[in-house]
Amino acid sequence: MKPIPVAEQRSLVERLTRACGGSYTPEQRRKYFISGPQWAAAYEGQALFHAPTRTPVTFEEVIRLYGEVGVGWWATHDTDVIPSDALFTQEQDAIVERIDKALKNAGVQCSMVTTETFHHAVFAAGPAAESAAVRDYAGRRLENTVGIGHRLGASYAVYWPGSLGYQIQGAVEETQTLRWYAEGLNRACEADIRIAKQLGRPTLKHCMEAKPFEPQAEILLPTSDAMLAFIASGLLTHPEMVGLNPEYLHELMWGAAPRAALGRALLAGKLWHFDINDGYRLKHDVDIAVGLVNPLDWLNVLVLLRSHGFNGPFNLDYKPPRTTSNHGVFGVSMPTAVDRFITLWEMAGEVLEDPILKEATEALKAGGEVSSGDVRDIFEANKELLSLHELIGHRLFQILCGLHKGRTFVV
Ligand code: 3MF
Ligand code: MG
Ligand code: MG
Fold first, then answer.
1. What kind and span of H or E run contains 295?
2. Which of 37, 154, 359, 390 has its CA 20 to 30 A from that of 189?
3. Contact 150/200 with Cβ under 8 angstroms?
4. How many A from CA of 247 to the centre of ligand 3?
5. For a substitution probing ligand 1, which of 35, 160, 249 has the most ligand atoms within 8 Å of its CB?
6. pLDDT, tens digit (0-9, with 9 covering 90-100), for 124-145
7. Cα(166)–Cα(183) distance, rounded to whole angstroms?
8. CB within 8 A of 45, min separation 6: which ones?
9. CA-nearest residue, atom 2 of ligand 1
């Protein structure tokens, strides 16, 4: 092939994207409770070792394009849209008005707001730093975000503690820092109760999000399980208002089985919000789009969630790769991520209805006919049935690859 002139590259990408087929319409996509984060669409590709590869975009553009591709909900950090210096001022109010207008124009709803307590230099020692002034500022930011959330009609607030941890061992006393962190969440919940009452709205669902490694060397609440213990620790004045926003990759990163981590959150009644993406075990937070690395694991995750009635919000917290252009973010990255999610979600429905899987699961639960309480008898009575475990794995692979619908290969 000859080199492709720049002017012809977009149409080539668009033609091949269309040729992939299997895409859903914006109307179909809107039926799923999928939210598009401001920061994912506006991410310019920068990192410690990386210069940006994309140019800045406005929130108006992001919201409009989410609406066009059929992502019906939007989420943001306070400072994704309001410069730090404009927080708490009339400029903030004017920006929030503009957001409200952009959302209405696009037919998109604000689902979630979150406070950036990790990027600004003031949070160098974390959101629950030793300095009472830093903690008070963080508390005011959390309260302010709750107010913005109510103004925009959100139902969720998310808390990723970011720098809650340390680089230098011994500099931070863990129990004290966690007490201070709880005070921040308590301020957010108490402000929420006040504001919700004034506005006659329900309170928000406050969801904690764990990440095991970055940005500190050591993290105080590294996993969703640690957060469940924190919620139940007695430090929160309103533990009933606080649940979890697990992120698929954040659990995978530390080596968890994400599905098991989600199962524990479900059992605790705290699975309220879910960041969907993909990546690799024991690596940094690569935030690859859902289903591109672990589609079979993802299918299993969605089987679990569907069978427990969880149906969102599914928040597209991934980073379009640096190799994707500005045009590609909404031309390729976002719609294909949504479409893989929908495909896997519908496939999870097929898994739950599959007669082979149903019978295999029921047979395993029925177990073998045991003639005595003797250990050898019990083992022998179940021995042949247990081959079904591997057959279940095979059947899930078949469903993932469409073989259950007659797809075959000529050999
Ligand atoms: C960091 C994250 C965050 C959180 C966000 C929500 C930038 O790895 O996943 O996204 O999801 O701060 O509170
Ligand atoms: Mg992540
Ligand atoms: Mg996240």
1. helix 295-307
2. 37
3. no
4. 5
5. 160
6. 999 999 999 999 999 999 999 9
7. 19
8. 51, 52, 53, 54, 319, 320, 321, 322
9. 160
Closest residue (by CA) to atom 12 of ligand 1?
A: 160
CA distance 342 to 362: 28
- The CA 410 to ligand 2 mean position distance, Å, reads 41
Q: Are 315 and 276 in contact (CB under 8 A)?
A: yes
User: Is CATH 3.50.50.60 the right assignment for the domain spanning 24-353?
Assistant: no
Please name every residue paired with 206 in a beta bridge, in sequence order, or none if there are none.
157, 242
Q: Hey, what are 24's tokens? A: 């859903």
Q: Which residues line ligand 1 (CB under 6 A)?
A: 39, 114, 158, 160, 209, 211, 247, 275, 285, 317
In whole angstroms, what separates CA 240 from the centre of its chain? 21
Reported as type and span, the H/E element at residue 110 is strand 109-114
With a cut of 50, list the residues of the chain below it in pLDDT. Answer: none
Q: Tokens 């002034």, residue?
A: 133
Alpha carbon distance 60, 215 (integer Å): 30
Q: Output Rg (C-alpha) for the chain, integer angstroms.
A: 23
Measured between alpha carbons, how far is 244 from 222 in angstroms, rounded to an integer? Answer: 13
Q: How far apart are the first and last CA of the chain?
A: 31
Task: Give the model's pLDDT for residue 378.
Answer: 96
Residue ranges per structural domain of the chain: 24-353, 355-405
